[in-house]
Amino acid sequence: MDCQQVKLMLSAFQDGCVVDSERRSIVAHLDRCGECSLHLGQLEMVRQSLRASPRRPMPAHLSFALRSLASREATRQRYYAGFRGFVRGLGERAGLFATNLMRPLALPAAGGLASAVFLFSMVMTNFQDIVRDHPNDVRLAAIATDASVRNILFEMSEDSEITLDILVDEQGRVVDYTFPDGAGEIKTAPMRRKLESTLLLTEFTPATTFGRAVSGWVRVKFSGRSEIDVKG
């Protein structure tokens, strides 16, 4: 076994991930090769330095994001559990397959529609007085709505106050939260855990655009006596 092969296997040798025959060959090579022995010592110094380096604590928002991801995955597994879940998943996969199958036809269809609209606009010479306001028309401003809170249970002391910006996905579930500028933050770990557990169990109504649910931010202000102020 030459030096190049030994250097490539030194890391696995330190981890004990080589077979006995390779380990004996490496040990025999290290006994007679000073360069490889020096390289092994350098790797050991790097390993000791990494072990002695302080561990950085996990950020609170990352911990909350991982818990939220685990909660969504557990919900998905329960949703597809059993025979009904299998049939439901099979139907969704069939729908996705049909969508992907029809997607190559979308561009020609869009081109044909655009050509038809262009030709129609060329034939029609005057659209005046054709379009009129209808009393039952819905204004565009009323079509887009902000996210809101359905139900929340969070108790605080009467002199406390917390303001949060909460990101809600299309299904009304909490994705992330932040503290607005100047609103401060929760300094005690028990209160933060209580707040995060409360947000996981809170029911939100997602924001909508043209009647379709979309993700959006909602600002929630908690104050004493269980008072809640919600702003989109």
Characterization of this structure:
With 232 residues, this protein is α+β, with helices and mostly antiparallel strands. It folds into three domains: 3-51, no CATH class; 66-112; 143-231. Helices cover 50% and strands 17% of the residues. The protein contains seven helices and eight strands, in the order ααααααβββαβββββ. The protein has helices at 3-15, 20-32, 34-52, 60-79, 82-102, 106-123, 189-201, and strands at residues 148-151, 161-168, 174-178, 203-205, 207-209, 212-214, 216-223, 227-231. The strands form three sheets. It has a four-stranded antiparallel beta sheet, with helices on one face. A hairpin with a 5-residue loop joins strand 2 (161-168) and strand 3. The chain is extended, with a radius of gyration of 31 Å. 7% of the residues are buried. The model has no long low-confidence stretch (mean pLDDT 77).
- Poorly predicted segments: none
Major sheet: arrangement of strands:
3-2-7-8
Number of domains: 3
Amino-to-carboxy terminus distance: 68 Å
Count of DSSP-assigned helices: 7
The helix content, as a percent range, equals: 40-55%
For the residues shown, what is the average pLDDT? 77
Which structural class best describes the helix and strand composition?
alpha+beta
